[in-house]
Design a protein that fits this description.
The complex is a heterodimer of chains A (259) and B (421). Chain A is of the alpha/beta class and 259 residues long. Helix content of chain A is 35%, strand content 28%. In chain A, helix 2 packs across helix 3 and helix 5 packs parallel to helix 6. Classes of the chains: A alpha/beta (259), B alpha/beta (421).
């Protein structure tokens, strides 16, 4: 646990963030710093507002920030549109990936890859290059070739949806991935595939924020830091052993501690 | 527009029936007047605002009479009009397909007298009356029995130089003989930015004989200040098929009206359409499918995407005569609104006088799905592009109604102008 000794610029800095949805304040004076290469787990009970945080980081419309700042690679994140954030390297593995009838996975992914390449001033991929890349990455996630011809998430099982999220992450190679309850609805095989996908991206530079209320995923993707989140803020931070401790005591003990 | 139309000398006036037909057109147009909101058939599409301008009919309106530069990305037997004036027809037509300028056909084929105005009723449709008053331009297309041409026939009207409000009047008579099977494409477009409004007023009278099939595809992409009014009047004989698809995406005021008479057993009509618009335009799709006899089928799928302060109108009528048992008629209209000011008016009408029929209609109206939009944007896709992806996906099933792959991709591509919400 030497994350604090990093001398690099933080990848993500959340400073005194207060935010919410529908006029209700959910996140209160929240602080978190994530450096390149670090994997952070944010654990908290259901309904604590963990997804609010991931949605705010990705710029989902409908959420409001009342105070505080978020810096990503030194840029004021809250001034960027959702697509600019994605192009800057943020990727959200969604808890409930949405179905998009009529849009085939390949065509969607091609739009996505090329939009990001264009933003970064890289040449767009032609269809052949693109298909080859998706096929190669798809094999790693046991995605059969038929699945990428289907409409995005339409008729996919819970496991297939998460595999598709993992495939997108592998193809887009984000600098910062947020996994929002990525383990919900996954059987053990699918969980391992997603975890392997995440681990494959760990290279000392990319960072991750794993949002979960179970320890399950953390057995496969070992975090550098574990934060207990309750009542809109982080109430305790520790190493990976904190997750195990939480499994023993439950959230109730920590929530009392915070008061 | 003044409904007292001047009597302009036109070729063919020497034929008494034609002179009288034109005169009847003038009388009917003056008698019926421009429809207002009180006219049931025009309740939602109010042409009087647009037609407050005086559109001038000029029998030789084009400035330059050369083949306009229109590149259709598919092979076809092409028939060109510029500013409503016949320019040319590809000369590689096989012998078993006849294409004649309408006025020539009317003068030399006396039998066509009975096919002129017999489907398009000038006593009911004011703009068919206007069309009759200046019946002059258009073509007669005759596909002989059993013929299955290797490529579609394309009717192209191209507007190049509207410098004052002009009326472009077109009338086509299409006869598909027994057992023939044809694709007909209509394209309405323009080059540059016409300096003025113009009005395209089209009447198609289409006869589909027994066991024949006509696939009729249309793309209306008029200039944004233009008006486009079209009446497709169709008669389908035993086991014949009339299948049409129309995408309306241009003009300030546009109506594509299709009336199909399923006159003999086994006749089928599939009338599908799509419309895409923002700005201030009104786009109207009106259908009237008449099942006259038993064992006739019809289906309609119409989908629209409307943004800005634009308005989409769908009026769909299915009429089933008292003896027309064992018929099936279904109709579905779906629209997506992209803004709060956009408007959709839907009027399904079912007139069923027979028992033992299957008939259905449905209408749905929605918005772009915010979660789908966010999902795409969260993957780096810019908002406008993401919206276009969702709109294309929304229209996918109705576009799939176009059987011909080349024509379908042409229509799909032309649909792809991003619509700001």
């Amino acid at each position: 646990m030497n994350g604090n000794k990093h001398m690099t610029t933080p990848l993500l800095e959340i400073e005194d963030l207060s935010a919410g949805v529908d006029g209700k304040e959910i996140i209160k004076d929240f602080n978190l710093t994530i450096n390149p290469g670090e994997v952070h787990a944010l654990m908290g009970p259901n309904g604590a507002g963990k997804s609010t945080l991931s949605n705010i980081l990705c710029g989902k419309p409908g959420y409001h920030v009342t105070s505080g700042r978020i810096w990503f690679k030194g840029k004021d994140l809250l001034k960027l549109s959702p697509e600019e954030r994605a192009c800057e390297g943020i990727f959200l593995v969604m808890q409930y990936p949405v179905e998009i009838p009529g849009v085939p996975v390949t065509s969607f992914l091609k739009h996505s890859v090329n939009a990001i390449r264009k933003y970064r001033g890289e040449p767009e991929l032609d269809t052949m290059e693109f298909i080859k890349m998706v096929r190669d990455e798809g094999k790693k996630f046991n995605l059969d070739a038929e699945m990428i011809k289907r409409a995005v998430n339409v008729g996919f099982s819970g496991g297939e949806k998460k595999r598709l999220e993992a495939l997108q992450m592998a193809v887009l190679k984000p600098d910062f991935a947020i996994l929002d309850e990525a383990d919900s609805g996954l059987d053990i095989d699918a969980l391992k595939i997603v975890a392997d996908g995440v681990n494959a991206l760990r290279d000392g530079n990319r960072a991750m924020l794993i949002i979960t209320h179970f320890q399950r995923l953390l057995e496969h993707v070992v975090p550098d830091f574990v934060h207990i989140y309750a009542d809109g803020r982080i109430v305790k931070t520790g190493g990976r052993e904190l997750a195990a401790e939480l499994e023993q005591t439950g959230y109730a003990g920590f929530m009392k501690e915070s008061r | 527009m003044n409904t007292e139309l001047p009597d302009i000398k036109l070729i063919g006036d020497e034929l008494p029936w034609l002179k009288e037909y034109r005169a009847a057109g003038r009388r009917e147009f003056a008698g019926q007047g421009i429809p207002t909101a009180k006219t049931e058939a025009w309740k939602y599409t109010k042409p009087n605002r647009f037609l407050s301008m005086d559109f001038i009919f000029n029998p030789r309106g084009g400035d330059k009479l050369a083949i306009p530069e229109v590149n259709l990305p598919f092979v076809a037997y092409k028939i060109y009009f510029e500013n409503g004036v016949f320019i040319s027809c590809d000369d590689d037509l096989p012998d078993n397909i006849e294409v004649l300028p309408l006025i020539e056909a009317l003068m030399f084929r006396p039998e066509l007298k009975n096919k002129t105005g017999s489907l398009a009723d000038i006593t009911k449709y004011p703009f068919a009356a206007l069309n009759a008053a200046y019946l002059n331009e258009g073509v007669y297309i005759h596909v002989k029995a059993g013929v299955r041409p290797d490529k579609p026939i394309a009717l192209i009207n191209h507007v190049t130089a509207a410098v004052r409000p002009e009326l472009y009047n077109l009338h086509h008579i299409v006869e598909i003989d027994k057992g023939a099977s044809v694709e007909l494409v209509e394209y309405y477009g323009y080059t540059g930015a016409p300096k003025s409004s113009y009005l395209v007023n089209v009447v198609n009278e289409i006869y589909v004989a027994a066991n024949a099939a006509l696939r009729h595809y249309k793309l209306q992409d008029e200039a944004f200040k233009a008006g486009h009014l079209a009446l497709n009047a169709v008669n389908v004989a035993a086991n014949g098929l009339y299948k049409s698809f129309c995408l309306q995406k241009g003009a300030d005021l546009s109506r594509n009206e299709t009336q199909v008479c399923l006159a003999e057993e086994g006749a089928t009509a599939e009338v599908d359409a799509a419309y895409i618009m923002n700005g201030w335009a009104t786009l109207d799709t009106t259908t009237d499918i008449e099942h006259l006899v038993p064992h006739t089928n019809s289906s309609q799928l119409v989908k629209g995407v409307i943004g800005g302060q634009a308005k989409g109108v769908f009026q769909g009528k299915i009429r089933i005569a008292s003896n027309a048992v064992k018929t099936e008629g279904c109709q579905l209209h779906k629209a997506m609104l992209l803004s709060d000011e956009a408007e959709i008016d839907v009027k399904p009408e079912l007139e069923i006088f027979a028992d033992d029929v299957k008939c259905s209609h449905g209408a749905a109206c929605g918005r772009l799905d915010a979660d789908q939009l966010f999902y795409l944007r969260s993957r780096g896709i810019p908002e406008a592009e993401a919206k276009q992806i969702l709109i294309d996906a929304y229209l996918n099933d109705v576009m799939a109604k176009v059987d011909d792959e080349n024509i379908r991709s042409w229509i799909k591509l032309s649909q792809g102008n991003p619509l700001p919400a």
